[in-house]
Amino acid sequence: MPTLYITDLDGTLLHNDATLSAFGSSTLRDLLSRGVLFTVASARSVTSIRPILDDLPLTLPIIEFNGAFISDLKTGDHAVINDIDRDLAEGIFDVIRSTDCLPFISTYNGTADRVYYEKILNDGMQQHLDNRRASDDPRLRQIDRLADAFADRVVCFSVIDRSETIVEVRKAIEAAYPDQVEMHFYKDNYIPGWSWLTVNDLKATKGRAIQTLIDLAGLDDSEIVAFGDHTNDIEMFRVAHRSYAVANAGEELKTHSTGTIGSNEEDSVPRFILADCR
Question: Is 3-81+204-276 a domain of CATH 1.10.3470.10?
């Protein structure tokens, strides 16, 4: 039975500065050259994943936006798109706007990915925008009316604010659309003091995306080994044969894991795969 290794990025494979270490990069390149099956499942977009993993000879697609896209890392082409129904997307936007927040809206317009924004309401949003501009993110588009984004296929709403505000936004969406969307709350690891709420289609989970990826790649007989650090990795752990939380992971995820390995700062994921393949 071949083994497929799938890892989260931030807080799991990557160090706290959002980089893959030289050891991690060289180890994974060697493993991939030996035919080890490996890919990533991340809340990030392919645009922000590519600069980090571009030197890895990945042959399998990656899972981005927590399962909203299954994509080719090199080209950015999407094999699967789990977008939000337009009427539902418009309703979610109205709820977010009623809380005096405005989201970044990630979409696919049929030929290219886009990230639309209207106004920057706080320093957390501004720092995120500055980071994406510094990376020359080609998706960014400022528009006068965020509602115009719904001409595209909407894959994710991202709300950035203080934790207490994010909690209220989440409650409002849950009340208006119970069990109709997939939401995740994050404290931003790179912009202290600010938090995120991401809203995706109900089908956009890492677990479902892994099952789809296995079907696409013809790997039905594979053993799945997964690594993560956050609650958005729970669905991935549920479909895995073996699942490992890094030491810095939240306690809730650890209760769903086969075991706990070292921290992300210790290159624990590549070290585990290297030892597991021997």
Answer: no
| CB-CB neighbours of 90 under 10 Å | 14
Domain 86-200, CATH class in plain words: alpha beta
Amino acid at 214: I
Mean pLDDT per 10-residue interval, the chain, length 278 residues? 96 96 97 97 96 95 97 96 98 98 98 97 97 96 97 98 97 97 92 96 96 95 96 96 97 97 98 94
Task: Count helices and strands (H / E) in the chain.
Answer: 9, 14
Give the start-to-end residue ranges of the domains of the chain: 3-81+204-276, 86-200
Element (H, E) at 228: strand 223-228
N-terminal to C-terminal alpha carbon distance within the chain: 15
Domain 3-81+204-276 identical in fold to domain 86-200: no
